[in-house]
Amino acid sequence: MLFTILRSILRQARRQPLYLALNVLGLGLGMAVCLVLTLQVRYEYSFNATIPDAAHVLRLDSHLMFPGSAPQEYADVPFIAFPFLRTDFPQIVDTTRYETEDYQLHNGDRSISADAAMVDPSFFNVIALPLEHGDPRSALSRPDAIVLSADTAQALFGTTDVLGRTLTTDHEGHRSSQTVTGVLARASGPVTIAPDALTPFPSDEMQKPQFTRWGSSSGNIFLHVRSEADRTAIARNLTRFVIDHASGTANDDSSEGVHPERRFALSLVSLRETHFNDLHVVGGDDATDRSVVNILALIGALALLLAVLNAINLATARSGLRAREVAIRKTLGATRKALFVQFVGEAIASTAIGGALALALCEIALPFTAALTGTTLHMDYGFTLPFLLCVVLLTGLACGIYPALVLSSYQPAHVLAATRMPSGGRGATRLRNGLVIVQFAFAVAFAICTLVVNRQAHFMQSQDLGFARDGILISSDIMTSDIAKQRAILEALRHTPGVVSASLSELTPHIDNRHRFNVTPVGPQREDIHVLGDTVVGDYATTYRPRMLAGRWFDSSHGEDDSPGDEAFHKSSGKTWNVVLNRTAVSRLGFASPESAIGTPLKSGPVMLRVIGVMEDMRFVSARDDVSPQITFNSTAALDYPHASVRFSGVPENIMKTRLKSAWDPVFPDDPTSFRTVQDRMSTFYITEQRRGWLFSIASGIAIFIACLGLYGLASFTALRRTHEVGIRKALGATTHNVLTLMLGDFLRPVLLACVMAAFPALFVMRSWLSGFHQRIALSWLDFAPVVLVTLLIAALTVLGQTLRLARAEPARALRAE
């Protein structure tokens, strides 16, 4: 039987090479798309899977719920909760705190900037990251210990065998000598926890507010439990935990007030969930939208389905051409079962050839896909080959069963007595048109979704941010609270050639410093709202050019415009300081208009504030997030780890960056920085959608191409069948134009119907996806018109050659065709 199948395929390749090429190419493309997207989806779902027992390593998240603001989830939690967890929850095996900071690591003349994590000695008991060198049980037991990643060790020492070597660390201006006690192994899969270094918390770090106040946080707490039941038990009692430990008097700065559960809550997220969950967490810019990943999986499955439908359509369209073969073989004694097995075997063999093509295409496409999506995709043959084998078998059966049933059912007497090959009648024609409709419906739905995703990504990239983004360069954090150094760098930047203005601020595009507090309008029955605070120094208005809606900006001639620094602010009871609100704060505070807020007193604890100006919302966050109500202060005091921002003009960007670095290095020789544009800093907000849009574009293009392969093959066989009909029509007076219009209409009618059918589900899916964005494009039916027109044009061009040749056929030749 195998020999018969192979001989039959070779005979088809000689007699009908077009059919075999279209079939194998369609199957190969469909399986290649399925394979690549399966590897992409597998990658996204495998985050932290290589960390031992990751499902039982839980991160404690905080939820803030304040009047006038939507509830927000944060991965950061107050470290003041840490000592109570093991006491209140016996289900916890161990706990650790985890706070990332910028460190400078020095080994002789080698220096690098590192994203280091300060942790507790119990870290490896909770998150068992494998070590290439060192003992995890003792690696963090010394106060001067430091564990390096393999890449960091290689960069600093030129090797990973560095146990016992010493290096100098610089953090927030504090230099110390630390000993390497371990080297992290390179992760064998994608992980969300990949620090450049791990070090125990320095003793002076414990005095910071996040260790002593419930309202302050800057890092994570991780718990290790034994089972899902333990997780459920802990989650059920977290509200009681907050009430027991975060309660206090209304004036107690270290607590969350009399009823902390009304404004503060805790929840648990396992390490296996963080990659998707953090999309809804403030600051979770590296997270992935699970729905988009699921859509990619669906696209992979549908691309394979399109290839199957394409193969079935081609096989049923040409089934009549093999009718006499079937009749003769049955006359010579072949059974229906034997013919069925042969035809299914031929389909599996053709699919296997397509599978080999798919594997080659996947090898070529994976590096491109990895670069496109910013991932580390690679070909895992241990997974790919068994998966591809299953796909080939299932696809071959799906492609072969129905055509085999049709072919093996032909009756020899009817076929041999007929003057024409059997066509299957109207039922077969409806089936083939139905397959074309399904193919193009899927392809057009892909294309519509692609259009919407790309439009949203472009919108996020180009939307109005409420300030003049072009011509601004922003530094990384200034890791010092020394006012003399802050003023020195501000002056150095101001006097750099090409700089128009310079300022310091705690908030910049892509916010990473979130100082929040409560304010209340003065008056009866007014509820407080939670606001985001920013303090600026220098020529901020000239640098960012915020749009003022009412009132004025800060002016050095007004003494009350100069508020004290963060530490002295809440101690300045009895004084009034001038502030500027954003539009959202005005709305949340209940003012009817920006003008009505001017001059209004506000209260924050014992401190009085007066509104002198209202500016448009400045969007420093993703389009997914709501802009927070914000209060801006002006100060000449030291700021809490601010950023420097400069506006430049008349100088190329790369030259300006070099000049700014030259001005920076003398002031902070041990704290190098990189100046980045607003677009660079905010690119993480839209790059994921942009990359997914590119991937969708390629997938939808391939889907339409597969559908067109089927349409082309169908047009070829249909043209062959209708040659006699065209001869009769032309003999009765039909012109070439009449025939061409008729044939194109017959081919494009199912395509147009497919476009209509695709629009409704695509609209529903995209509206659901866009609902996750606070700022988003508007959808209308007119947006889908370009996709429909382009699809119809491509389909028309696909069948035009066959149709035009048929329409031009001479009647005499056409009538002799059969």
UniProtKB/TrEMBL annotation:
The keyword Chaperone does not apply. It is a multi-pass membrane protein. Its main location: membrane. Keywords: Cell membrane, Membrane, Transmembrane, Transmembrane helix. Residues 21-240 form the MacB-like periplasmic core domain. It is found in: Cell membrane. The keyword Lipid metabolism does not apply. This is ABC transporter permease.
